[in-house]
């Protein structure tokens, strides 16, 4: 694939799709990970004499009111703080103001234009020009620059005007360094992992993870399943689960997966169960049935040991989804222990994908000790399912 370092950037207007879809509170960016992750590409373009034209979506725009809250202005400000350099913010997604600002941009300078999804609503009507990849919009944005660098891995599962649309209308689309890194680690894990390869999957719902479980069962040596979704597998194994999360319509599927996977699939052997969904609930640790009136909210100590034993010696680990309700301190232990164990694995490539597990890794303070924390939520899930992501497919070959 073509990457930004293959391009001659001097004096070029460089269109750069980034994923600056970051959380905001009262108009302030509360987590700048995605901005920080895009800095290497932005700095590289600036240092090599390119004129960086940055754009991203932010949230979902369904009405004119949404536009008041979801402006890119505070994001551009955050970028300026991180770069320690001025960033021009243009409050438009098209038209003379934007075009003039681009024409006034000098080599090594950077501008950010308004939320690409503002194009989804025109005069109060939902037209979805960006989200439905209106061909005219992609063509227009492509006309504003000389080359296109796509560094928005987090948006790679969307086929929108600001990624696929531009790529279809410009001579060359190159991956940014973040995109390259995500493909290297997530793509490497699903295509060519160093073995043993162990996947740890968690999270509340089986239905969200079916694709990943199925795909990784074909690639990994072991697939550990914890978190809320494990209880549907417990029922499939004939256990009683009290009031724990259960997806009845996924029971047959769970049975099938258990039968197909054999000892490749590693399930919890005990649980920390609570009499209410609350940090202060009364708890019991059970290694058999969960009593009526109780719900499993974390894996128990024997599961923690079993999972660590399974992970021992792994050379590739993909972690997606927490082992319990880690937001509540009394049910965070499983996620914490398993997550910190990953950080001790020697010579292993440890990859975290998906919003929740990323939040857990950060909350646990182990993010720096893991090889790669993906900036993708939905994108990393779809990638781990083995799907072709339109944003990646649209990058030119070398
Ligand atoms: C994300 O946060 O997962 C991406 O930025 C995509 O956002 P979307 O789900 O609103 O398309």
Strand content: 15-25%
Integer count of domains: 2
Query: In CATH terms, what is the fold-level topology of the largest domain?
Result: Rossmann fold
Rounded mean pLDDT is 96
CATH superfamily of the largest domain: Phosphoglycerate kinase, N-terminal domain
Shape: elongated
Q: Cα-atom Rg, whole angstroms?
A: 23 Å
Bound ligands: 3-phosphoglyceric acid
CATH architecture of the largest domain: 3-Layer(aba) Sandwich
Give helix % range.
25-40%
What's the β-strand tally? Answer: 19
Low-pLDDT ranges: none
Family: Belongs to the phosphoglycerate kinase family.
Protein name: Phosphoglycerate kinase
EC number: 2.7.2.3
Binding site for substrate: 19-21, 34, 57-60, 117, 158
Task: Considering the chains and any ligands shown, give keywords for the structure.
Phosphoglycerate kinase, Rossmann fold, cytoplasm, six-stranded parallel beta sheet, elongated, binds 3-phosphoglyceric acid, EC 2.7.2.3, 17% strand, alpha/beta, 398 residues
Describe this structure in words.
Pathway: Carbohydrate degradation; glycolysis; pyruvate from D-glyceraldehyde 3-phosphate: step 2/5. The protein has two domains: 4-175, Rossmann fold, CATH 3.40.50; 182-384, Phosphoglycerate kinase, N-terminal domain (Rossmann fold, 3-Layer(aba) Sandwich). It is 37% helix and 17% strand. The chain contains 15 helices and 19 strands. It has helices at residues 33-47, 64-69, 73-83, 96-104, 135-143, 161-167, 177-191, 206-219, 230-236, 251-261, 301-311, 333-344, 355-363, 378-384, 390-393, and strands at 13-17, 24-25, 28-29, 51-55, 88-90, 110-113, 121-122, 125-126, 147-150, 173-175, 197-201, 222-225, 265-266, 271-274, 283-286, 295-299, 316-320, 349-352, 372-373. The strands form five sheets. The protein has a six-stranded parallel sheet, sandwiched between helices. Strands 13-12-11-17-18-19 form a six-stranded parallel sheet, with helices on both faces. The chain has a three-stranded antiparallel sheet with strand order 15-14-16. Helix 5 packs across helix 6 and helix 11 packs parallel to helix 12. The chain is elongated. The mean pLDDT is 96. The structure holds 3-phosphoglyceric acid (3PG). 3-phosphoglyceric acid is lined by residues 19, 21, 60, 154-155, 158, 377-378. Residues 19, 21, 60, 154-155, 158, 377-378 line the site of 3-phosphoglyceric acid.
